[in-house]
Amino acid sequence: MSHILTISNLTKKYGSLTAVDNLSFTIEKGNVYGILGPNGSGKSTTLGIVLNVVNKTEGHFHWFDGNTSTHDALKKVGAIIEHPNFYPYMTAVQNLQLVCKIKQVTEERISEKLELVGLLDRKDSKFSSFSLGMKQRLAIASALLNNPEILILDEPTNGLDPQGIHQIREIIKKIASQGTTILLASHLLDEVEKVCSHVVILRKGVSLYSGLVDGMNASHGFLTMQSNDMEALKQALEQNPAFGSFKRQGEYLIAYLKQPMDPSEVNEFLFQKGIVLSHFVKRKESLEEQFLELTKQK
Ligand code: ADP
Ligand code: MG
């Protein structure tokens, strides 16, 4: 596996506010990474640091093998971190020609990139006539003109209608399938679930989870129980190592499993302790519930 980006113990402070707090993760070639977190969790700050537009306070990051200067490395990076900005009175193709001149890359790839984002048939339309979704797609085409190793997108579907959102996500998947590594910041769990293979979950600048998107769903579920002696029920369950934590919810006790356990085993265990249940349901949290639980303000 070759490394695209390595971040080690990165911290960014704005006065007394710590926007990014001792963050570490590695980006390997060919994967699609999501930085997922609620607004203000430090996603844009993290992207800004690695793109050299925000100064870090502490820690390190390096691009590729670590022997390339950030300045040179960024020539192999495509990024969209703010709203697309093009000349309104110029056409799509004229805007991209200008980007090629500024970035000093060949104009040969303009048609190919417009095709990829579904704008080839609108190449001679003025930018001002484009919908927000089309503007965002043109920005993606623009960021790809240098055939980057990695494409970085900050909240790429913000403000778009459902159809526009769908188009952008399909384009991102297509770009990834062609081998370009992708790093995408989003506050939307379903976006990360649909598009990404890997995720770093941030809350107040702290990484809460880093790994496969599928691995996020590693919870073993929870049991909702009721008995005529709730205290005895809780005490009995506390003696069983399969349970991690407990929560009282109205008349019910909710017990979270930290290892797999069959409901019939739980029932038998309690029965042996002389506890009879009047209510017993086993359920697994949805990914959304797990995410909300993980990121809720504490
Ligand atoms: P996200 O992109 O996840 O919404 P940001 O990285 O934009 O989060 O912001 C993280 C935190 O840093 C927030 O509390 C935000 O208010 C703060 N912040 C961001 N930029 C600045 C700045 N230039 N000056 C002061 N505080 C900032
Ligand atoms: Mg942001």
Description:
Pfam families: ABC_tran. It comes from Aequorivita viscosa. Belongs to the ABC transporter superfamily. InterPro entries: AAA+_ATPase (IPR003593), ABC_transporter-like_ATP-bd (IPR003439), ABC_transporter-like_CS (IPR017871), P-loop_NTPase (IPR027417). By secondary structure, the chain is α/β, with parallel strands linked by helices. It has two domains: 3-215, P-loop containing nucleotide triphosphate hydrolases (Rossmann fold), CATH 3.40.50.300; 222-297, Alpha-Beta Plaits, CATH 3.30.70. It is built from ten helices and 13 strands. The protein has helices at 43-50, 70-73, 92-103, 110-116, 132-143, 162-177, 189-195, 230-238, 263-272, 287-295; strands at 3-14, 17-28, 32-36, 58-63, 77-80, 150-154, 181-186, 198-203, 206-212, 222-227, 243-249, 252-257, 277-283. It has a six-stranded mixed beta sheet, sandwiched between helices. Strands 11-12-10-13 form a four-stranded antiparallel beta sheet, covered by helices on one side. The two termini are 37 Å apart. 32% of the residues are buried. It binds adenosine-5'-diphosphate and magnesium ion (MG).
What would you say the CATH architecture of the largest domain is?
3-Layer(aba) Sandwich
Structural class: alpha/beta
CATH class of the largest domain, named Alpha Beta
- What's the Cα radius of gyration? 24 Å
Mean pLDDT: 92
Uncertain residue segments? none
| Amount of beta strand | 25-35%
Task: Please give the order of strands in the largest beta sheet.
Answer: 5-6-7-3-8-9
Cα(first) to Cα(last) distance is 37 Å
The bound ligands are: adenosine-5'-diphosphate, magnesium ion
Subunit arrangement of the protein: single chain
InterPro entries: AAA+_ATPase, ABC_transporter-like_ATP-bd, ABC_transporter-like_CS, P-loop_NTPase
Keywords: ATP-binding, Nucleotide-binding, Transport
GO molecular function, one term: ATP hydrolysis activity
Pfam families: ABC_tran (PF00005)
